[in-house]
Amino acid sequence: RYDNMAELFAVVKTLQALEKAYIKDCVSPNEYTAACSRLLVQFKAALKQVQGAEIASIDEFCRKFRLDCPLAMERIREDRPITIKDDKGNLNRCIADIVSVRKKQNFWEFLGILGMGGIQPDLRELMETMARMSSLPPDFEGRQKVNQW
After folding, report:
1. Which stretches make up the VPS28 C-terminal domain (predicted)?
2. 66 to each of 2, 19, 37, 48, 70, how far by Cα in Å?
């Protein structure tokens, strides 16, 4: 039980440190996006391990253990790295980007270039574009399929 709490504490503190490093320009945007996305996934898993009768939410956890991490909490609330924008007003642009990436993937398949080196950047771009679309529900089947690829 305490191991799980320590893990959650460490993930939140690491996310706070990453946010500060990004603000100070010590981390490139690509490195930041990858690390932040990974930490957010780890956070969700760690939070599930400690949620229960004693701790109901991350806010309660932070109060109980006097954890002062405002930058990490903002990232957790938004559930995405700061480099991935929420294109609320640009739904058509997001749709066009997704179609463009998908056409490019079809072209890769047509040419028989199925190695991860060629497709991986396109898949990452597709995932990031889908993440920007606030109109898609978090459990959207398409997101799950792209993650499987």
Report:
1. 90-149
2. 16, 19, 25, 20, 12
